[in-house]
Amino acid sequence: MHADLTRQIASYVTEKLESRLAKLASGVAVVKVGGASEVEVGERKDRIDDALNATRAAVEEGIVPGGGVALLYAAQGLDKLPAANVDQSHGVKIIAAALKVPCKAICNNAGLEGAVVVGNLLNESNGNTQSTKGMNASTGEYVDMLKAGIIDPVKVVRTALADAASVASMMTTSEVIITDVPAKEEPAGGRGAGMRGGMGDEMF
């Protein structure tokens, strides 16, 4: 507990010193946010906060191509990873499959065929884990993600992957997992149609 407290204090002091240094070096900017409503102002402030945090993270650890392609191409490197046994081999395959999901999901959300895009990118990369080509979800075009300015901070990608692995590991060792049951969709015709069918069954 003492060690944790010391680290927290050190982190707080470091943050304050960096803030003071920025002010002394005239590296301070005031961002004024406006909008037609309180909700709009709040949303814009959240976007600015996200941008600032992403910028700080990028300064700390650098950047990688965005749009999920950094993880997509990293998955190719796992094919060469030696496994000590069958269980490890299955684990590597699971992680490799998971690394392809972000890029696929981004494309699907943009109305594109995520599976097709992922397949095309992997085929064109030819196993090159350093490739920077990806899909611009806004335009539907294949571009060099770095040149197009579509980037992700390394810290964000790394922590997201580590957190996902932690959650998955916890789930595999849990005896019980609680989740929400999806609501059942009513058949075409609504509730009345179902009632009529039920009455007919009872009559026969």
Would you kindly provide a written description of the structure presented here, covering whatever features stand out?
Residues 189-204 have a biased composition (Gly residues). Keywords: ATP-binding, Chaperone, Nucleotide-binding. GO terms for molecular function: ATP binding; ATP-dependent protein folding chaperone. By secondary structure, the protein is mostly helical. The protein has a domain at 39-172: GROEL, domain 1 (Orthogonal Bundle), CATH 1.10.560. Helices cover 61% and strands 7% of the residues. The chain has a two-stranded antiparallel ribbon. A two-stranded antiparallel sheet has the order 2-3. A hairpin with a 4-residue loop joins strand 2 and strand 3 (141-144). Helix 3 (69-77) runs antiparallel to helix 4 (86-99) and helix 5 packs across helix 6 (114-125). The protein is globular, with a radius of gyration of 24 Å.
Q: Averaged pLDDT, please? A: 83
Query: Which structural category fits the helices and strands?
Result: mainly alpha
Q: How many strands, which pairing sense, and closed or not: the largest β-sheet?
A: 2 strands, antiparallel
CATH topology of the domain at 39-172: GROEL, domain 1
Supply the number of helical segments.
8
Radius of gyration: 24 Å
Strand content: 5-15%
**The CATH homologous superfamily of the domain at 39-172:** GroEL-like equatorial domain
User: What's the CATH class of the domain at 39-172, please?
Assistant: Mainly Alpha
Architecture (CATH level 2) name of the domain at 39-172: Orthogonal Bundle
Number of strands: 4
Helix content: 55-70%
Shape: globular
Strand order of the largest sheet: 1-4
Q: What is the string of SSEs from the N terminus onward?
A: HHEHHHHEEEHH
Region (Disordered): 184-204
Keywords: ATP-binding, Chaperone, Nucleotide-binding
GO molecular function, one term: ATP-dependent protein folding chaperone
Biased composition (Gly residues): 189-204
